[in-house]
Specification:
This protein is of the alpha+beta class. The chain contains 17 helices and 13 strands. Helix 7 packs antiparallel against helix 8, helix 9 runs antiparallel to helix 10 and helix 13 packs antiparallel against helix 14. The two termini are about 45 Å apart.
């Protein structure tokens, strides 16, 4: 696992060099006018700025209160402190309501028929000047002129600017993934042990509190979080009135869960509340609950509820119970102490309402299985016993062990009525939760769907009343008294991993020309390049090489021209006669030396500090599953693991 650095009290880097203002080339808002953004995003950015200002004012009032000894000055500071605390709470509440709004990013075409889904708002971030500090590091650490890498630095800065406001489509998603993969290279080239004074400031996706860190790990984690956010938005905007739309929504919710799980597994000490372990677990549970709900919607698109007989009624009862179980788990995680005052009340109420709603549907289908197939005239005794055994095994293990099996038709009908009454009670509780919340009661579609499902249960009860042959006296006075149905789904939702670090032919190391990443990284140190002019004698040049990308000097003959030219054992051959060789194979360097005739010019460097793990292979930290591939060649042996049999004498 990778740790964020400990939280630091650092002000955001507000200055941007002039060349940053002209950066273009990637999709997304590059910090232009508000007309280039959606209204929601513009409002969110405004609130984030206001929150940052109030935090600074709050800190100023706190400092004044601590420093003042004059009574009147302390009273004034205390009043200012109260004022700014009140403003901060108000702004956070507004931003939380905006970020957690259920109506945003929903599909426009099926608002009247489909329940809206919860998705998150993107984490916002401030501009960062990468060019100047990285240019300085290239000169100080790699001994190269930063101007030679101006295009690479500009492209990196352009990507970072575009990542601030990615498009809500596949292009925006690709941008985030490509930038994450590029950060793999950038971290190792520039940030392994250095910080450069670069401050990455990101805003909490729910309440908007800013967090500033000098850790590129925090930058990487925030971008990965936004990948999960985009997948949740993609899921919410799918047209779930079609089978393909539902399948796509399931896939996107599962990918969102996969990203949140990945963050929870690979990163720790998160300085931002939205990336804390409890939050990520809750968000993953929410995404999977919604994916399971979509799977039930997919089934209901193709199935006439009771055409399949008692078996189908049982399957539907257990599947809706499974959806309810997942929403119950989500609601329980939202109710834990870390989320008090953090998660918006609408999310908590909606999770509980959906728990009740799908629990009610489960009881309704269970009632249908008991009551609609109670006619024994067309069934043999063996078939009746089998059906009643299935009905008994619908219950969870603990309840099933305590309740006696169904022994008669009266038992079967009595239990069916009890489940029906429980369904009506649960539907009532679900609607009550929606109507009690100021935001949820505005969701007409949600209330309509809940009401229609409630009417199914009420209509079934009316049918029984009209028949007059069934005792409808209350079996349960609360829904909790009814026996619990075992939640089982024919297809279980689960997190899907998104390849953000795997091989991609579209992502190259922008700083490829610095040399193989396994050696030429910020973790290692080496001498400035030097030139050795070696003149061949009858005995040869007097040195031997080995290895691939890069090639090394493995021996230097005593008294040879190579020794006179100050060629040293273990020198790295950077160029031969001006031809760069950091990425060359052993054979390619051999050919260049042979073509030199009687004189060869070598550009050489010597490592002064090399981590052994970097010598043998490209590094892979716990935060990465695999190394992003480059279109170009990477040494398989890390440059120094070749055997002496590979050596060539000159």
């Amino acid at each position: 696992m990778t740790s964020y650095n400990a939280p630091q009290s650092l002000s955001p880097n507000e200055g941007m060099v002039e060349k940053m203002s002209s950066i273009r080339g990637y999709g997304g808002d590059l910090g232009g006018a508000a007309t280039m953004r959606t209204k929601v995003q513009s409002k969110r950015q405004t609130l984030n700025g206001q929150i940052s200002k109030e935090i600074r004012m709050l800190e100023g009032a706190e400092n004044l209160l601590r420093a003042s000894t004059n009574r009147k000055a302390r009273e004034t500071a205390a009043l200012e402190l109260t004022f700014h605390e009140s403003n901060l709470e108000r702004l956070q509440a507004q931003l939380s309501q905006l970020n957690c709004a259920v109506t945003i990013y929903q599909h426009e075409g099926n608002k009247e028929t489909r329940v809206p889904m919860i998705c998150l708002g993107l984490k916002e971030t401030d501009p960062v000047d990468l060019i100047v500090p990285l240019e300085r590091f290239l000169h100080q650490h790699y001994h190269v002129d930063g101007a030679h890498y101006e295009s690479a630095l500009t492209e990196l800065a352009s990507m970072r600017m575009a990542v601030r406001t990615p498009k809500r489509n596949e292009e925006g998603l690709s941008l985030l993934i490509d930038f994450t993969k590029q950060l793999y290279f950038v971290e190792r080239r520039f940030f392994r042990a250095q910080k450069h004074g670069i401050v990455f400031q990101w805003y909490d996706s729910i309440q908007g509190l800013p967090t500033a860190q000098q850790s590129i790990t925090f930058e990487k984690a925030s971008v990965i979080f936004n990948i999960g956010v985009l997948h949740s938005q993609f899921a919410a905007k799918q047209d779930r009135s079609t089978s393909s739309g539902v399948e796509k929504a399931v896939e996107e919710f599962e990918k969102a869960a996969g990203m949140f799980d990945y963050l929870n597994e690979k990163f720790y000490n998160a300085p931002s509340p939205d990336m804390a372990p409890d939050t990520l677990q809750m968000l993953s549970a929410l995404m999977l609950a919604q994916a399971q709900e979509c799977l039930f919607e997919r089934r209901s698109l193709d199935t006439e509820v009771l055409e399949g007989g008692v078996e189908l009624a049982i399957e539907l009862a257990q599947e809706t119970a499974r959806v309810a179980d997942l929403y119950e788990k989500t609601h329980m995680s939202m109710g834990t102490s870390p989320f008090k005052g953090y998660i918006t009340r609408s999310w908590v109420q909606l999770a509980k309402a959906k728990d009740f709603h799908f629990r009610a549907l489960s009881r309704y289908y269970t009632a249908a299985a008991h009551l609609d197939f109670a006619d024994e005239t067309d069934m043999t005794g063996e078939e009746i016993a089998s059906m009643r055994d299935q009905l008994h095994h619908m219950l969870i293990n603990t309840v099933r062990a305590e309740m006696r099996p169904i022994m008669s038709l009266d038992d079967q009908i009595d239990r069916g009525v009890g489940h029906l009454q429980s369904s009506i009670l649960l539907h009532r509780d679900a609607l009550r939760l929606l109507r009690a919340d100021g935001e949820l009661k505005k969701l007409d579609t949600l209330i309509q769907v809940f009401y229609q499902d409630q009417q199914m249960a009420l209509n079934k009860q009316s049918e029984l009343q009209e028949q007059g042959t069934v005792d409808l006296s209350p079996r349960f006075y609360t829904a909790a008294e009814a026996p619990r149905i075992d939640g089982v789904a024919p297809r279980e939702s689960g997190p899907r991993q998104v390849d953000v670090f795997g091989a991609s032919p579209d992502v190259d190391d922008l700083f490829y020309n610095l040399g193989p990443l396994s050696l030429f990284s910020s973790a290692n140190d080496w001498t400035p390049p030097r030139t050795a002019n070696v003149v061949r004698t009858d005995a040869g040049f007097g040195f031997a090489i080995r290895g691939n990308a890069p090639v090394l000097i493995c021996s230097v003959d005593q008294g040879s021209p190579a020794e006179s030219a100050r060629v040293l054992k273990d020198d790295v051959v950077m160029a031969v006669n001006g031809e760069p060789t950091l990425w060359s194979t052993h054979g390619e360097v051999v050919d260049l030396v042979k073509k030199s005739g009687t004189h060869v010019q070598l550009a050489l460097t010597s490592f002064t500090k090399v981590r052994r793990s970097n010598v043998l292979a490209p590094t892979r930290d716990g935060d990465d599953q695999s190394t992003p591939s480059s279109k170009k060649r990477e040494s398989h042996d890390g440059g120094m693991a070749a055997t002496m049999e590979d050596a060539m004498q000159y």
